[in-house]
């Protein structure tokens, strides 16, 4: 999905006043309406600090942003949160770092859940066997692994791949020091991992995080 131009946050109040029902939410900076799964929700703490609500379950009126580094920067520096909240707010200086850390944690949890459910395997040979049998909906590959090796495993297969975690982080989920390739079977967990990886890639895009997948605004298309 092409990135929308950044408008002034004049419509922030309107965006936050929209009822939080239905599958779409309006970004208070770009004004585009997107599926809530690919966006970021924020609420205010009792001390009026902006808090990322990555699971979209915290109480309070939600403020929604597209999961893009430039949008987050604009909201934090141009007063979008204060306009939406209709009053002074505190935007933590490490807000983006908090979001990245939180999203990485969500990816780890989901990949770990897929492993325990028998829906994910790690290692070149195991991933290749699943690919050959058509059992793979998503490849989660180490962000610090060899790009050439990652591409060689995928070959000409039309399998989406994301790189949200390092080899050590992936390895820890499978009881090993390193894991470069994790194959995930079709299902809700693959969809959820793809969505969280896309949000992480969007937020981390301008940070130059090593090996991160390019931001896309929407999760990779899964079979």
Automatic annotation (TrEMBL):
Pfam family, one: YlxR
UniProt domain YlxR: residue ranges: 25-100
InterPro entries in UniProt: YlxR, YlxR_dom
Start-end of Acidic residues biased regions: 7-20
Protein origin, superkingdom: Bacteria
Region (Disordered): 1-22
Protein name: RNA-binding protein
Natural source organism: Falsiroseomonas oleicola
